[in-house]
Amino acid sequence: MENLDDLQKEILGKINSADNLKELDDVRVNIMGKKGRLTEMMKGLGALPLEEKIALGKSLNVVKNEIEKAIEKQKQVLEEKALNEKLSGETVDVTLPVRPEVQGRIHPVSKIYEEVAAIFGQMGFEVAEGPDIEDQFHNFNALNMPANHPARQMQDTFYLNNDPSKPFDMDTAYVIRTQTSGIQIRTMEKQQPPIRIIAPGRTYRSDYDATHTPMFHQVEGLVIDKNITMAHLKGCLYDFVKAFFEIDDLPVRYRPSYFPFTEPSAEMDIGCLKTKTELKVGAGTDWLEILGCGMVHPNVLRAGGINPDEYQGFAFGLGIDRLAMLKYGIPDLRTFFESDVRWLKHYGFTPLDISSMTGGLSNNGGLAR
């Protein structure tokens, strides 16, 4: 039988001198495979006397452990070496211009995000964020929505069981937020007026057709301070739509409406011209509803920890996907989420199309095509 010390030195030498993972694996198989040298020695233990079997077995296990440790250590070294060689061979010169046929595109929703943030940012609004999974207090209760409100029914809202160990309870279940209004409540809870924020983000509702999808994008705005009036709301939104559609003389009107979280409430329409083949935003004989708005309901202010006798404010909400459809002439909302590269190449924007109030928001003058 081979001398174990000599065998260990020989194998460790071969392990440390292996230049690649294949050579290392060949060494492993040669020593510990089914017919490996160490394996054959262990098979021969059965023919030895008991005392010799115990002593030699312990020695063989010690050698085996040392070899396994050395193999694992050398494997890590060779894997890192192989990775570095691969990375060095795949180096890209980032100073080279991108070929037009492989250049990526900015999604229209991302572009609208930039445009909305640029406009409201110039007005002094900050961007606020919140969780996609909400408790019912922030998504419904604090927004003055009673338990029997239709929007809280399961055919409209996605519910999540917050305790899988117990049966589903709709009264305590979490929801995938149906609106970004919960961010308004969270902002009021941690920040005292004056408040001026927009809250863009994904929202989720159980709906699916040409103008509705289960997941869509909204942006909501909130302003709270002393002596805020409906006139401030109208002026803010008028400046927004003029800048967004890039039309200075854009006609607008407000119609009375109802939302549980605002009082009084209104819907804002913009002027347009509708034909069988196109929709043109601007002066025309038709009107198009664009957003909902109103003065923040006193109950909502109380839920956010703000005294409605001292402060008041306004809020508004609009769909980012709908804005993209109107501004860039996209007929079907469902195509936004189909990951069709041809669609994105047609409606998308190059990475250098950066939205700003000084450099311009877009190149089409706000006309739906």
Describe this structure in words.
By secondary structure, this protein is of the alpha+beta class. The protein folds into 2 domains: 4-89; 108-347, 2-Layer Sandwich (BirA Bifunctional Protein, domain 2). Helices cover 38% and strands 20% of the residues. It has 11 helices and 11 strands. The protein has helices spanning 4-17, 21-32, 37-43, 50-89, 108-122, 136-139, 181-190, 230-245, 298-303, 320-328, 341-347, and strands spanning 126-127, 133-134, 159-160, 174-176, 195-204, 215-225, 252-259, 262-274, 279-281, 286-296, 312-319. Strands 1, 5, 6, 7, 8, 9, 10 and 11 form an 8-stranded mixed beta sheet that branches. Strand 8 (262-274) and strand 9 form a beta hairpin. Helix 2 (21-32) packs antiparallel against helix 4. The N and C termini lie far apart (87 Å). Mean pLDDT is 86; it is low at 364-369.
CATH class of the largest domain: Alpha Beta
CATH fold-level assignment of the largest domain: BirA Bifunctional Protein, domain 2
- Give the count of helical stretches: 11
Q: SS-based structural class?
A: alpha+beta
Give the SSE map:
Layout: H1 4-17, H2 21-32, H3 37-43, H4 50-89, H5 108-122, E1 126-127, E2 133-134, H6 136-139, E3 159-160, E4 174-176, H7 181-190, E5 195-204, E6 215-225, H8 230-245, E7 252-259, E8 262-274, E9 279-281, E10 286-296, H9 298-303, E11 312-319, H10 320-328, H11 341-347
Parallel strand pairs: 1-5
Antiparallel strand pairs: 2-4, 3-4, 5-6, 6-11, 7-8, 8-9, 8-10, 10-11
Helix pairs in contact: 1-4, 2-4, 5-10
